[in-house]
Design brief:
Order of helices and strands: HHHHEEEEEEEEEHEHEEHEEEH
Largest sheet: 8 strands, mixed
CATH superfamily of the largest domain: Fructose-1,6-Bisphosphatase, subunit A, domain 1
CATH architecture of the largest domain: 2-Layer Sandwich
Radius of gyration: 21 Å
Helix content: 25-40%
Number of helices: 8
CATH class of the largest domain: Alpha Beta
Bound molecules: 2,5-anhydro-1,6-di-O-phosphono-D-glucitol, manganese (II) ion
Number of strands: 15
Number of domains: 2
Strand content: 15-25%
Structural class: alpha+beta
């Protein structure tokens, strides 16, 4: 029988002790998010029971109104963060504008962005979904936090992470000191350290992309994806294909096993589909902290200066050599079309 485990709380405190000037606010904010994750995980585990337990007027056994899970996840995160005095403003995929801290509560020094339920179309088919979060230090000088506090480039993030509600619930996060993974032990309700210091392979075995968009991509992306399949002389070894349609689950598999995820721009989603602030940027921070990389095809994701809360971006993310291959191929094809020459990124 094991008698010593590292809980997420102990791990965060131990990390923080390396910085004498730290106040503990960021640690507490991360516990607040871990609590929200446990509440959401509990609801997701019962998702298939909603209709069974909530037949009478869509009320559950406690007599509460049933909510769609992405609304539930959104409200849960807001309620776990808005009263603590650690947050000045929030931004969520589910809210059009930034979310202020209610006037009866104090504000703190962090701005938090989140995708409360990522891959939500997977809920109905009992597949993996997730939550993504991103934390910035406040930059506005007075008042209660504004949109400027969330419109910061990804390189300014102080922490980012995701929760994956899969066969087990995992929380993976970084504060810029490597990437660490915790697994929820449902018997004691604690996240326990299961994967310290995750390093992603330099060259991956999987590629993950919605290939039904193939004919909507430009030539550079088409050539790169054919290359990932091995259809390029002197290109790469062919990779295996895996795609769930849930960024968190697709990214997580590639982080651990090595691989590349792409959601390029196409002629329907001309600026890409995924959102910069609460999907691409936090995942890019994690990718880089695990020795992978992330680009929009031209720019490093973490360097992009956002101009609006729900801005979209193309995303190519994962194992460093694979991302380099795709970025180089896109640039090479663009240069060939314009007659210029290019230097490789790696
Ligand atoms: P969300 O459920 O938060 O709207 O995100 C869905 C996203 C992302 O998780 C996934 O990678 C992508 O949409 C899948 O899109 P396609 O169905 O177009 O492949
Ligand atoms: Mn999403
Ligand atoms: Mn979502």
């Amino acid at each position: 029988m094991q008698t010593s485990v590292t809980t997420i709380e102990r791990f965060i405190v131990d990390q923080e002790h390396r910085y004498p000037e730290a106040t503990g606010e960021l640690s507490n904010l991360l516990y607040d998010i871990a609590l929200a994750a446990k509440l959401i995980a509990a609801a997701i585990r019962r998702a298939g029971l909603v209709n069974i337990l909530g037949t009478a007027g869509h009320r559950n056994v406690q007599g509460e109104e049933q909510q769609k899970l992405d609304v539930f996840a959104n409200e849960t995160i807001k309620n776990c963060l808005n009263h603590t005095g650690r947050v000045c403003v929030m931004g969520s995929e589910e809210d059009e504008d930034v979310i202020p801290v209610p006037p009866e509560y104090p504000v703190g020094k962090y701005a938090v962005l989140f995708d409360p339920l990522d891959g939500s179309s997977n809920i109905d088919v009992n597949s993996a979904v997730g939550t993504i979060f991103s934390i910035y230090r406040r930059v506005s000088m007075e008042g209660r936090g504004t949109v400027t506090d969330v419109l910061q480039p990804g390189c300014k993030q102080v922490a980012a992470g995701y929760v994956m509600y899969g066969s087990s619930t995992m929380l993976v996060y970084t504060t810029g000191q490597g990437v660490h993974g915790f697994t929820l032990d449902p018997t004691i309700g604690e996240f326990l350290l299961s994967q310290p210091k995750i390093v992603t392979p330099r060259l991956g075995q999987y590629y993950s992309v919605n290939e039904s968009n193939f004919w909507r991509w430009d030539k550079g992306v088409q050539t790169a994806v054919r290359g990932l399949k091995g259809d390029m002389p002197d290109g790469m070894q062919p990779k295996n294909s895996r795609y769930i349609g849930s960024l968190v689950a697709d990214f997580h598999r590639n982080l651990i096993a090595g691989g590349i995820f792409l959601y390029p721009a196409d002629n329907r989603n001309t600026g890409g589909k995924l959102r910069l602030l609460y999907e691409a940027s936090p995942m890019a921070f994690i990718a880089e902290q695990s020795e992978g990389s992330a680009t929009d095809g031209i720019n490093r994701i973490l360097d992009i200066m956002p101009t609006s809360l729900h801005q979209r971006t193309p995303l190519v993310i994962g194992s460093r050599e694979d991302v380099g291959f795709v970025a180089d191929t896109i640039r090479r094809v663009a240069a060939r079309n314009s007659g210029a020459t290019v230097q490789p990124t790696l």
